[in-house]
Amino acid sequence: MNQIKCECGHVNPEGTVLCEACGKPIEKNQHVDGNEGQKTLNMRYEGSARRSKTYNRTIIDKIWIFFSSVKVGVWIIVLTLIASAIGTIYPQEIYIPPGVDPATHYKDEYGITGQIYYQLGLHNLYNSWWYLLLVASLGVSLVICSIDRFVPLRRALKKQRAKRNPVFIRRQRLYGETKDVNKEDIVNVIDQLKKKKYKITEENGHYLAEKGRFSRWGPYVNHIGLIIILIAAMLRALPIMHVEDYVWVREGETKVIPQTDNKYYIENKDFIFEIYDENDETYGEAVKKSGEIIPSNFQTNATIYKVDGEIIPGEEPKLEKVMEDEIRVNEPLKIKDADISLYQASYQLNEFQSMSFKLHLANDPEEKAIGEFTFDMTSPQKEYDLGNGYRIVVDEYYPEFYMNDNGEPASFSKYPKNPAFILFVYGPDIEEYEVNFLGIGTNLNADPNNVYKLSITDFDMQDVTGLTVKRDHTLPLFGLGALIFMIGVVQGMYWHHRRIWIQPNEDGVWIAAHTNKNWYGIKKELEKIVENSKIDMPKDQQELDE
Amino acid sequence: MVVSNKKKNRLIFRTVVLFVMLGAIVFALVTNLMKDQEKVKEGEIAPNFSLQELNGDKTYVLHDEFKDKGIMLNFWATYCEPCKDEMPHMDELYPKYKEKGVEIIAVSLDSSELIINNFLDDYDFSFPIVHDKRGEVMELYDVFEIPSTFFINKNGEVERIISGPLTLENLDNYLEEIVPDNENS
User: Fold this and answer.
1) Distance between CA A473 and CA B35 in Å, rounded?
2) pLDDT digit string (tens) for A118-150?
3) CA–CA separation, A397 vs A381, rounded Å?
4) How confident is the model at residue A444 (pLDDT cuts 50, 70, 90)?
5) Contact B31 A314 (CB under 8 A)
6) Is residue A51 pLDDT above 90, yes or no?
7) Are B55 and B31 contained in the same domain?
8) Both B97 and B144 in a single domain?
9) What are the chain A neighbours of B109 within 8 Å (beta carbons)?
10) A4 in contact with chain B, both atoms CB, cutoff 8 A
11) Are residues B128 and B169 in the same domain?
């Protein structure tokens, strides 16, 4: 390893741009930052040796050097951005309607571009291996870039000396020479600097005033926060850290809770849907104004059961009540033993629970009931006895009725959202039976010769609650990462690393100043400091350049 | 030598950091790929379940009932038109394959027995039909769309998963695959 010995006697690592101790530019390296032809020095990273630019030996070093480049880092960010944007052109697979075949859906819905999108696998972009690799390499770049800049920067700031090389002083952006200055003036300035909370170090009458070095660590603290966030995101893949699922439960239904290994069941005792009252003191006016129904509460009264003993799925489970609770939006139910929370996420109010019918004479204008029965959707029967020899046979029951392509009645699903029935009426004075076809608001296709008629008298609706089943232990980690991220931002943004060098020589004093940002601020501060002395205000050499 | 020691330490440090990060990336990729996969995979043992026969007392426990037999597990429902279309094919092939040691079980996902019975009034299927009342077996097999058919060989491994309707010809071929004697041919 070639080391560079500066004329001040300090030995610098290979690749150093400005001597760590005195700041003198190292001849062969001084223009690596592309500052040829400029009067001022490039102070980036204190001119320290960014090591990765200098060695290139083993494969490990080569990989390290690749990721150490900020240029590479920026490209990774750009590529990740572009890829993320592409993922939003069409909906991702998880957002297309459930049950449809993605192979045909993208083509049908978006044409040829949709098909290409699907065939390139972009419908699953955020879970694709290459996208993950992209994000991962962003993390690697972040870590290596930070290490490679933090270490030399810290070293350079630690090694810096109050007495600097004249070249370093003269080539600072803020630089001024004042002739005929006496000692008192310098002491006066030093006092002023102390008042401004500068830390003063002295070496043979040369002074360095420094404050806010702390600000320089901001970006690295910020990166630590980012890395914690990436780790948290990674941990979401572990079921013990994070699971998310969904369950629909009808009122009165007891259902297995997903992600609990079939060990826990939930019963929906009642789903409560409340709205703001028009006569409400506080909100009444607003409710009337909007003219709409405004929900105030979605709530599931739930009972949680645990399966007693081992069972094979499908067997009638022996359930033991564990707890009872009300689930509201943002007030989840927590099952401690299963380490799972249930969140109120959705609802449906459009399912029938039962329907009541009456039998009457078709020509009776008062429709006086001969007999009545109630059809319970959860435990429907084949036959209902109305007494007096009348009985009803359920020939067909369609929970969600529609007419299929062949013009036959059929059902879309098993959920009673639009029930329809073909009912046979048997009676003592009916020869065989009379057919009734009943649906909501319709008595379709009834035989005009029917003597008897069935009518719907009443119905009950059942609510369905949609619950998110969730376990998420990564949130605190995300929070911590975000907090550290913000601390880093604040640290780097609201503090400034300012340094002022004062060098007396034979015919006066040189004064130079550097800040990592906010040059306006340091100029104002300098003006105040030199106000009452004979020392001239340093000039901004960069402004002079332009 | 101090200098070469420093260099060696640097290499060790870099190697460790890179390997830790590589490990994290591999972990992230592997767990992510695993997450995408279905609960029941081809080549794995079909999970056990116990369901009662429709209108019967018989309880079918998959792992007990069908030792050394090929099993075709068909998830269907009365509200699923393509399911109803393929059931006559199943009925047609059932006697032939029952003789060869293949059992067909149709798992109905309907809500009530009334609806299934009303449907079966019009047909007379010879293969057993079981009712997954609470949808637990559907959840267990991760059935999203119906019809869904699982072909299970005599060792209890899932040989083939078909989501969507089957033609008579395909059904015949896939059933042949799980005939116990054909296993090794």
Assistant:
1) 18
2) 999 899 898 888 998 999 999 999 999 999 889
3) 10
4) low
5) no
6) no
7) no
8) yes
9) 414
10) no
11) yes
